[in-house]
Amino acid sequence: xxxxxxxxxxxxxxxxxxxxxxxxxxxxxxxxxxxxxxxxxxxxxxxxxxxxxxxxxxxxxxxxxxxxxxxxxxxxxxxxxxxxxxxxxxxxxxxxxxxxxxxxxxxxxxxxxxxxxxxxxxxxxxxxxxxxxxxxxxxxxxxxxxxxxxxxxxxxxxx
Length: 159
Prior knowledge:
By secondary structure, this protein is mainly α.
């Protein structure tokens, strides 16, 4: 990714032409199925010719091949580890969001219940005052509303 971004930016900068060739070369070397013909444009350059000679697979020793394979395996294991960690992190993030939403819903319900209780209490208080203004006794209000005498006194006291 980084190399691609640099290589594409180099195209717009004429003074960076020699660097662009190196990035082009590096990009070509990433292909495991390369052959000598893929690098003909670089063979005229002395430095590139030496690099090509050193990169030829048929010139590698068994130790070189083992080293390359172990590096490739290490890169794969590192990428797998990273992807697993990212997946776990994403799962934990989703779990956190789910828990957060649940807490928010619970708080919302709690607020709604409190508001409804306050509304009901205000309505009961209004009803009690209305009945008292009509001349009804506390006992009669209790009989009509189903509220105990104690509840009626508490509602009136909180007002």
